[in-house]
Design a protein that fits this description.
Elements (H helix, E strand, L loop, with lengths): L8 H13 L2 H8 L3 H15 L15 H27 L4 E5 L6 H10 L5 E5 L5 H6 L5 E5 L7 E9 L1 E6 L9 E2 L18 H9 L5 E4 H6 L5 E6 L5 E8 L5 H11 L49
């Protein structure tokens, strides 16, 4: 019986990559994840198991006896998982797995897919933004709605739209009186760090508590909206792009069909080749409030001055 039944296959794969490379940086590069994330995974495994898997401070990296035992079991578990996945794929109906990062709403495309392909399940998978690229490269999803930028490499991408940035402030903040602001208006404010979109909810919690303000994409502000904060458009900082991305080597018929749904092709139109092979459409620009047309001015009749008579 396995001594490590509680460890999921993904963590076993990551551990095995380090154990076989005996080099954290090379293993992280091969897995397309950060070295820091890989190190934290190994530390968590050691804490969970109550033993060291790598000899502390060893140069080059070396496995402990427990690490060698886990590597043997990891290889067996990974092989079984791949065999089971292959068997399930042979017996189960074709399914398209589509990931989406926080802030992206996919219900419209899900509804169209269900009506157009009722016998082909569409599995929607919530994916953390930090995990969007590994999810694609490891095959956990067939396609993913991602937030740009992303390392294109062997991936195809269709840019869909761009999101305006907004600043989230307490409801009684003076900025709440404005319709939109510039960065100069925020010069004296403490800006929360929102580089990690997955942790934006915690930043907005701090804003609600009166600790600074936060700049996030518009959809993230909507996702974490609460009654004690408001958000206003920031006019002079970078917006962000949303794209549909999939691995070039896995452009299947189902992938092509979903591309057609997202692009708005009709049910009876012929499929065109997938985007990303040399050219790609321009992303839609951020929506701006429509301006009211100015009323037409009435022509003003010209008034000629009467000619002055000559003096005699």
């Amino acid at each position: 019986m396995s001594r490590f039944p509680s460890i999921d296959v993904q963590r076993l794969r990551w551990f095995a990559a380090v154990a076989e490379e005996l080099h954290f940086a090379r293993a992280a590069k091969a897995l397309h994840i950060s070295r820091q994330k890989l190190s934290h995974t190994v530390i968590d495994l050691e804490t969970e198991l109550g033993t060291k898997l790598f000899v502390p401070g060893a140069q080059p990296t070396r496995l402990t006896d427990a690490g060698q035992e886990l590597l043997r079991e990891a290889r067996d578990s990974i092989a079984r998982s791949e065999e089971e996945a292959g068997t399930a794929a042979d017996t189960a109906p074709a399914t398209l797995r589509v990931g989406f990062v926080p802030g992206v709403t996919v219900t419209k495309w899900e509804r169209i897919w269900g009506r157009r392909f009722p016998d082909t399940p569409l599995e929607l998978v919530a994916v953390a933004q930090a995990d969007q690229e590994p999810a694609l490269r490891e095959g956990r999803v067939d396609m993913c709605f991602v937030r740009l930028p992303i390392d294109r490499g062997d991936l195809n991408a269709i840019p869909l739209y761009r999101e305006l940035p907004v600043v989230v402030v307490p409801k009684d903040h003076e900025i709440s009186l404005l319709d939109e602001v510039g960065m100069a208006d925020l010069a004296g404010e403490r800006l929360q760090d929102t580089a990690d979109i997955d942790a934006a909810g915690a930043a907005i919690e701090l804003v609600a508590a009166g600790v600074g303000v936060a700049i996030v994409p518009h959809s993230i502000a909507r996702l974490h909206h609460r009654r004690d904060v408001v958000y206003r458009t920031v006019t002079d900082t970078d917006d962000t792009g949303i794209a549909l991305v999939w691995p070039s080597a896995r452009t299947t018929d189902l992938v092509e069909e979903f591309i057609g749904v997202v692009r708005g092709r009709s049910e009876h139109s012929s499929r065109s080749p997938a985007a990303g092979k040399g050219t790609e459409p321009e992303p839609r620009k951020p929506h701006a409030p429509a301006k009211r047309p100015r009323p037409a001015r009435k022509p003003v009749p010209s008034r000629k001055k009467p000619a002055r008579g000559r003096k005699r």
